[in-house]
Specification:
459 residues, alpha/beta, two-stranded antiparallel ribbon, 16 helices, globular
Length: 459
């Protein structure tokens, strides 16, 4: 990471989804529009206002119709945008209609004020939609800026203790107290086996992993969506804070979380498979990445202690790769995943990605992968935002396939969220501590699924 002037760093860390910046812009828009309307009411311009308001309503209705068609009818974005996003876009169209007609009808100060407000309306709408998705948390995330320092593995200690031995030594006072927080680093993972051109990965090291005598910890491989990058897992999901909270109550213990790059670029969908079009992404994720983790980090070697997870396209990857590689991953966490890897039509993918081999594509479909490797003793936790009807259906279908194969399946929906990182955060908030307690033996939480108010568990 290159050294930047302090003022640039502060600028890049300004939050977009909450805080002073979005609040200020929303207030400017609200106050500005109110002033324009009241100005006309009290300056005897009611006749002009009477013409502007219908235009505003027509523009808003038109925006609502277009966004609904694009999102719900034609699904041009691949997923439903959700009503909060549709309404935000419609409100933007309505305000733009009002401002443009004000420019036409008004003079001098009001015309200037309306013109100045237009970019504020556009920015405020973008910020509102971003807050709904939780995608870009800071200004820096818009340009791919990473504040994570490189992890130096030259002094990294391998795990020399089991988790039980670590706990005994801690309780006997033989080890210093664990740090209060874990740390997120950037890492470059070699692609020796695959040759896949991946971007820099990110890794969360819990307090116990930073000890001079770390235990052999569980591993969660977590994949962002597409478009997206490895940093997005940590900047948008809130998983580091979730694990810091768990570690604080369990003597520094928590899983190591690593987010490798499964696509190589924001504009590319590798399908998380070995393909002729993008390269050997599956080999990278299931050979190069695990090999690097085991060589450099204090981790368990047991598949029971490894999990793969992801959001959206990353969630689809998790439900492909987890069942296909039970010798690596004992658990799966997928949020808002699809029923099949998707980059165009099936015919296009078969021809472009698999050199015409339909069976190679079908083997990547999660339900097929699950059935092909049954019976399975894996745990599969599937989540979806409740407003994302398609993803909720996908949870049910993939969950049924998992149950049929013998998996322990937990199906979660998150109220008041859609296809967004808020659904990821709520799912991880429940799923990761549950795995820590019930799968990985890091320490009980005393909580059951019903104790997490942000989720609903489907039967």
């Amino acid at each position: 990471m290159e050294s930047l002037p302090s003022w640039v760093t502060r600028l890049l860390h300004i939050r977009l989804v909450s805080g002073p910046l979005p609040t200020t812009i929303w207030v400017i828009v609200g106050v500005g529009v109110a002033i324009l309307l009241l100005w006309q009411v009290f300056r005897s311009d009611r006749s002009k206002l009477a013409r502007q308001v219908p235009i505003m309503l027509v523009c808003g209705g038109f925006g609502l119709l277009v966004m609904w068609l694009l999102s719900e009818k034609f699904m041009v974005f691949g997923v439903s945008l959700g009503w909060p996003v549709i309404m935000a876009a419609a409100a933007c169209c309505a305000l733009l209609g009002l401002l443009v007609t004000t420019i036409v009808h008004a003079r001098r100060a009001r015309r200037l004020m309306a013109a100045v407000l237009i970019p504020f309306v556009l920015v405020s709408t973008a910020l509102r939609i971003d807050s709904i998705y939780g995608e870009y948390q800071t200004i820096g995330s818009l340009i791919g800026y990473s504040s994570y320092h490189p992890l130096s593995t030259s002094h990294m200690q391998k795990g020399t203790l089991t988790v039980d031995e670590w706990l005994r030594e801690v309780l006997d006072g033989k080890l210093p107290p664990a740090a209060a927080h874990g740390k997120v680093y950037s890492v470059d993972i070699s692609n020796t086996a695959s040759g896949f051109r991946a971007r820099t990965a990110a890794v969360y090291m819990p307090p116990a992993a930073l000890s001079d005598t770390p235990p052999e910890l569980p591993v969660l491989v977590m994949l962002a969506g597409q478009p997206g990058n490895p940093d997005r897992v940590f900047s948008a999901s809130g998983i580091a804070a979730i694990l810091d909270q768990y570690a604080k109550a369990h003597h520094g213990l928590a899983p190591i979380v690593i987010s490798p790059d499964q696509n190589g670029d924001n504009t590319v969908n590798s399908l998380c498979a070995d393909t002729t079009k993008v390269g050997r992404a599956e080999t990278y994720l299931t050979v190069d990445v695990p090999r690097w983790i085991k060589a450099h980090l204090p981790v368990s070697r047991q598949a029971r202690d490894w999990a793969i997870g992801g959001f959206s396209q990353g969630g689809t990857c998790a439900t492909q790769l987890g069942p296909r590689h039970p010798d690596i991953f004992g658990s799966i966490i997928a949020v808002d995943g699809e029923l099949k890897p998707t980059a165009g039509s099936v015919e296009h993918m078969v021809a472009e990605y698999f050199n015409g081999d339909r069976s190679a594509y079908e083997a990547q479909v999660p339900a097929n992968a699950i059935a092909d490797h049954a019976p399975s003793n894996q745990i599969m936790i599937l989540g979806a935002g409740k407003r994302d009807a398609r993803s909720v259906k996908n949870v049910i279908v993939n969950g049924q396939a998992g149950v049929k194969a013998g998996m322990h399946v937990v199906k979660i929906v998150v109220p008041d969220t859609g296809h967004d990182w808020h659904s990821v955060n709520a799912t991880l908030e429940a799923a990761v501590p549950w795995l820590c307690a019930h799968r990985w033996g890091l320490g009980e939480t005393g909580l059951t699924w019903s104790d997490y108010p942000r989720i609903e568990v489907l039967q």
